[in-house]
């Protein structure tokens, strides 16, 4: 029948199928309706490895940075609960302290990466940041309700900034002079212990069997490397202190990775040597200032430092 009231035979049977979409065939290519999904097709959100699912990448990958960070935070909380109840100076206290440092070294590396543009060896920056981490661990109070990374980051970054402020390298030092600087500083320590005074450049040159002008060139290299006055008189005897001038960042630690440094400082060294090293490299005190702080002679401080460095070098060779 003609007219708008006529209903076609095709339209009537389609009504029940609209109520049960699972039974309705997909429309043809010319249809405006979206194609229906197969009844047994899995939802993308049910796929464990599908991107954009409820399962996060870190949940699927335990090596994901966020997953590792969460593990480090959980481990840090457990270690601090044990750490605060231990007596300082005991082997157990040193063991847990070393474990805290090890667990949070990624935080130091993250902070150090912010200073890549400064053209300093990254291992040096990480080592300095590790000293800041040690200080943060010693001062942290879990009862204050602050997460340790939040508490430690300003201390680590501040230590690195102070390093760049006090030890900016103004001129590139040739590798040969840097290696010679290590020898000169070692000879200076030995001669100081032997004679009980700061050695002259001539004595150092004779000890190393090199021309005196090479010793002076090494001192000049130290001047450009450290932005620290090489002419400052040593406290106590009024003489120029070659140990203090060349030993601001003692090259005896060169080649010792920060993990070895931390581990052996805290585990293998006696408590007194730990304190001397922290005063020397965290507080940046001279040997004269350390001797006044501890009430011992400067010669004794020099011997303790040399002994500590020998232990570190020996331990590093064993692990290597």
TrEMBL record:
Domain RNA polymerase sigma-70, first and last residues per copy: 124-137
Molecular functions (GO terms): DNA binding; sigma factor activity
The organism's place on the tree of life at top rank: Bacteria
Keyword field contains DNA-binding: yes
GO biological process entries: DNA-templated transcription initiation
Location of region: Disordered: 1-69
InterPro entries documented for this protein: RNA_pol_sigma-70_dom, RNA_pol_sigma-B/F/G, RNA_pol_sigma70, RNA_pol_sigma70_r2, RNA_pol_sigma70_r3, RNA_pol_sigma70_r4, RNA_pol_sigma_r2, RNA_pol_sigma_r3/r4-like
SUPFAM superfamilies: Sigma2 domain of RNA polymerase sigma factors, Sigma3 and sigma4 domains of RNA polymerase sigma factors
Biased composition regions of type Low complexity, renumbered to the chain: 34-51
Keywords (A to Z) from UniProt: DNA-binding, Sigma factor, Transcription, Transcription regulation
Protein name per the record: SigB/SigF/SigG family RNA polymerase sigma factor
UniProt organism field: Streptomyces klenkii
Source organism phylogeny: Bacteria, Bacillati, Actinomycetota, Actinomycetes, Kitasatosporales
